[in-house]
Structures are given as C-alpha cells and as structure tokens.
UniProtKB/TrEMBL annotation:
Known role: Positively regulates TLR3- and TLR4-mediated signaling pathways by bridging the interaction between TLR3 or TLR4 and TICAM1. Promotes TLR3/4 ligand-induced activation of transcription factors IRF3 and NF-kappa-B, as well as the production of IFN-beta and inflammatory cytokines.
Predominant cellular place of this UniProt entry's protein: other
GO cellular component: cell junction; cytosol; early endosome; Golgi apparatus; nucleolus
Flavoprotein is among the record's keywords: no
Record lineage: Eukaryota, Metazoa, Chordata, Craniata, Vertebrata
Name of the molecule in the record: WD repeat and FYVE domain-containing protein 1
Domain FYVE-type: 281-342
Any one GO BP annotation for this protein: positive regulation of toll-like receptor 3 signaling pathway
Molecular function terms from GO: 1-phosphatidylinositol binding; zinc ion binding
Organism (species): Mandrillus leucophaeus
Top-rank taxon, per record: Eukaryota
C-alpha cells in the first residue's frame, strides 16, 4: 500500500521519502503525526486512515474507519490525540486515537454546517471546535456540551480558516476573494476588518502568531502577505505559481514560506529579505506614457482620428499604459514577481538584481493539501490523484529546523 522511495539526496530540492497509495478517491487532508512515523489521511472515499511505518519501511493502515459521508477537512490535536473530521454533509465528527495509534473511538458528532465543511481548527484552551463551510458561515461549537456557540455568515462560501489562540481572532477566507477578521466570543462575534486583494477565491491561509503575519493563497495563482501586527496595511504580493495555490506553511524560525499549487508546484520563498510592495494600479483614459487613447475614450479617438488601444499596467510603477509602451518583460523578485511581467523601465530593471528569492520544485502529482512537521523538516502532500507523498524538506529549508520548534 505504500512504497519507500530510495532517492539519492539532493542539495537543492525536496527528497521524496515515501509514497502512500490505497485511497479510492481524492485525498482531502493528510497530517503527519508528531514524533511518530505515521500519517493520518481523510478522503472523499469516506474513509479515515492512520498509516504507520513498518520495519520494512512501508506505510500500512493501522486504522481504517468508514464515515457516512465523504471527508472534506480534518484537524488533529496531538497532545489529546483527538481527531476532528469535517464531512460533505456538513457534520464534524470527533474521535480519540489510542496511544499506540491502532484504535480510534468515536466521541461526538457536531452539526456544524448545512453543507460541505471546508476547514476545522480545535482550541483546547476554550474547548471550541471552529469550522467553515460551503453554507457560507463560520461556526464555533463547545466540545464539552456539543452545543453551537455562535455562527457568522458571509456572502459566499467560506473556504479556509486560521485562528489566533491567544486573542481568539479568526481569519476566514471566502470564494469572493475576501478575508474577514473576526473576534470570537462565547456566544457572539464582531467583525474587526475585511482584507481585499485577491482577484479569485481565497483557497488557503496561514497565520504566524509570533510575527503576526497572515499569508493567503488564492485561485488567481498569487500569495499575499498581510502585516497584521504592523497596523500599517502593508501587503506583499508573491507571484510564482502557475496554478491555484492550495496550501501554505510559514517557517518562523528560518523566515521561509512554503507553498503548494494544484499543478504540483512546490515553492519555498525567502521572507528574510527586504521586499517592496507592489504598486496600486492607476486608472487613465489614455496611455500615461505615449498619451494614445484607450478604446473606451471615444472623444479622444474622434479628435485624433485614431483607434483606441487596450489598457495594460506596468508592474513596477502601476501606470496605465498601452501594449507598445509596456512591451518589455522582466522578473522582479524583490517585488514578488518570480516570472517575467510587463514593465516600462528596461534600463532600471537591468540595474536591479534579478536573483530569484524563491526556489521552485515539482511535486509530480496533483496537490490539494499540504502540511508540515516543522521540527523534523518533513512535509506531506495529497491530492485528487489519490496519492500521499512524504518529503524531506531539510535540503531546501535548512537543517536548522531540527531544533524542536513546531507551529502553534
């Protein structure tokens, strides 16, 4: 059911350690068990499986549990060994795993949503299970009583979730491209702010409570870093993926961001450098360089007896320009552009270092979810191809991860 990959270690790319096969449908979530050679997976085939590495080097399922509905999301709390599984029917189910990971007992069902559950987070301090769903809401329920504590509705599907355990702030991304920051209380919540920047559905979020940075990935193939702690509205745009960004993980110790996209792309971004904010795009009725009219500027087209041109934007300064004036292309990594984009400053760009501030790798399978065991430098990916892959990321992110640091 699982093959051990014997790859020769590479100094600059992730090393594939194992490949797990056995699910009959898309694998929606895969989580590494801390301090164990084990993986927990949830799938559209309605099964939850716990895979343990045997002496042969292969992973075999020690737990195989069939659910009533396809599994769409999962959270695991290692200290209490509690698993929360979100389903396509809107329910969240809680299980407790035995110490040897060979038995799983059902605890409770939470009627959290009326439609597919998209994300789950468990807070031990408050005993809340917080979840988002395609019924356009975020809900938080008490794990002691099983009662619903509160709900907040959005105008579109709630697609992803992050939570600050100290302040009880929840970050909810939705399919309209917005991120809503909520303050959750025992029986109510308040909207703090709304973040707008993506041109497509927000597909994943990552919150770093130390630096107070929020990272968001979207179906527009881009990543945005929001400096929440700075309170100045500073944002950084990262563009390097060629398909929608599906998962994020920020390594606070090494100041690196790991991102995965649905085409199998794995990127590691160096965030320990001085980066520039991308400019706001300016609007104009004519090219701000040659002054030729754009195609909607009927008056200037009539006065000058010329055809209108299509509007583009220089990625360096944000000016509205025509295609001829923005025909130059260049990468600009310091502004997050890791592939060639339009600009009007060829002379300036030739003076600027074009050294990439990210490394890009091929996962060679569809990736819909990724998670990391930061302390060991391991990453697990899964997707619609029904395959789960375990990677050694230390050649890419550095051996300094093996210091015992782990995310919240």
């Amino acid at each position: 059911m699982a093959a051990e990959i014997h790859s020769r270690p590479q100094s600059s790319r992730p090393v594939l350690l194992s490949k797990i096969e056995g699910h009959q449908d898309a694998v929606t979530a895969a989580l590494l068990i801390p301090k164990e050679d084990g993986v927990i997976t949830a799938s559209e085939d309605r099964t939850i499986r716990v895979w343990l590495k045997r002496d042969s080097g292969q992973y075999w399922p020690s737990i195989y549990h069939t659910m009533a509905s396809p599994c769409s999301a999962m959270a695991y709390h290692h200290d209490s060994r509690r698993i929360f599984v979100g389903q396509d029917n809107g329910a969240v189910m809680e299980f407790h795993v035995s110490e040897d990971f060979n038995k799983m007992n059902f605890i409770k069902t939470y009627p959290a949503h009326q439609n597919r559950v998209s994300a789950i987070i468990f807070s031990l301090a408050t005993e809340w299970v917080i979840s988002t769903g395609y019924d356009k809401c975020v809900s938080w329920m008490c794990t002691r009583s099983g009662n619903m504590l509160g709900r907040h509705f959005f105008t579109s599907w709630a697609s992803c979730l992050q939570y600050d355990f100290d302040t009880q702030y929840a970050f909810v991304g939705d399919c309209s491209g917005q991120i809503t920051l909520l303050k959750l209380e025992q029986n109510t919540c308040s909207v703090i702010t709304t973040l707008k920047g993506h041109e497509g559905s927000v597909t994943c979020l990552w919150w770093d409570p130390i630096q107070r940075l929020l990272f968001s990935g979207a179906s527009d193939n881009s990543i945005i870093m929001w400096d929440i702690g700075g309170r100045k509205g500073r944002t950084l745009l990262l563009q390097g993926h060629h398909d929608k960004v599906q998962s994020l993980c920020y390594l606070q110790l090494t100041r690196q961001l790991v991102s995965c996209s649905s085409d199998g792309g794995i990127a590691v971004w160096n965030m320990d450098v001085s980066r520039e904010e991308a400019p706001q795009w300016l609007e104009s009725d004519s090219c701000q360089k040659c002054e030729q009219p754009f195609f909607w500027n009927i008056k200037q087209m009539w006065d000058t007896k010329t055809l209108g041109l299509r509007q583009h934007h220089c990625r360096k300064c944000g000016q509205a320009v025509c295609g001829k004036c923005s025909s130059k292309r260049s990468t600009y990594p310091v502004m997050g552009f890791e592939f060639q984009v339009r600009n009007i400053f060829s002379d300036l760009f030739s003076l600027v270092s074009r050294t990439s501030l990210a490394t890009f790798h091929e996962g060679k399978h569809n990736i819909s979810h990724m998670s990391m065991d930061v302390a060991r430098g391991l990453m697990v990916t899964c997707g619609t191809d029904r395959i789960v892959k375990i990677w050694d990321m230390t050649p890419v992110v550095g051996c300094s991860l093996a210091t015992g640091f782990s995310p919240h």
